[in-house]
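I had to read the description of the data format several times before I understood it. In essence, backbone conformation is discretised, so a fold becomes a row of integers matching the chain in length. I therefore recommend that a typical entry be quoted early in the introduction. For illustration, here is how one protein appears when written out as sequence plus structure tokens.

***
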Amino acid sequence: MSLFQSGMDRRQWMAAVTGLAFASTLGAQPAKTARLVVIGGAEDRLKDRVILRKFVEYCGGSRARIRLITTASAQPAMTWESYRAVFSELGVDNFEQLALTDRDSAFAPQLSQEILQADGIFISGGDQGRLMDVIWETPAYRSLHEAFHLHACCLGGTSAGAAVMSRHMISQGPAVLRPIKWATETDIGLGFVSNAVVDQHFSERRRLARLMSTLAQRPDLLGVGIDEDTALVIERNRSIEVIGRGAVTVVDPSRMQSNVDDVGLEEQMEMLGVVIHMLPSGHRYSLDSKLQAARWPESLRRVLTRLVAPGPLRG
């Protein structure tokens, strides 16, 4: 007997159909959420492993397919063995190293397929310039973007792997005492964080002046400084969260007044109206929480909106 034949009116019929539709989804896997786990380097791999545990959780748990990119490392074999042991102890069985060793390898169809099938991809530390030299404008590069934007693959990166997350990337530069024009050299990164430039080992290596030097040249960007054993988790279009043992420093120069165009390379710069936010570990900032947002300064709401905005699908 059909629902109509049972004598139900339209309201009862709609309620029944809705209930059946809901019941049919019980047990279904929830939709994946695209996240970036941007780590300031020196993450704990020996004790509690808070950040790496959360990364595994974001990828889907112990059954997730997690892949490692060691291209930035000067000792990729040693780096692979270190992370292989850690992820194995975290219960991940399907953990493999991606064969991304040089530009020729970045064009291999099998590599692109591996990237597209991954639930999570972790990028090790080393030299961010080395990684970008290998992957820039290759099928592997395009596959990373497709994996994140279309398949909601979780992307994690530590140290150099954090620096490459931004489109405008700090490639090198000393930890200067105060902002000066020549402090950093920049290059193009992977572009998953489109409105900010990321600096790592931030408090430990006293890099605030270095980051501000970069922003003096690019006031259209936010500066994100991430401490060691600390991660900024960016949930696309929704929230940011700080996990680990340190803090994330966000520098907003969008309303800055500066004389950067008028001073010499080694002269001190005037930078007025720069806003700095200190975000400690254990705090989450969500656009979905109106109650939480009501107590934020307007400047923090602007920062959050820009940080969670995804970069374009490139390639």
Notes: Residues 1-28 have pLDDT under 50 and may be disordered. Residues 10-25 form the longest helix (16 residues).
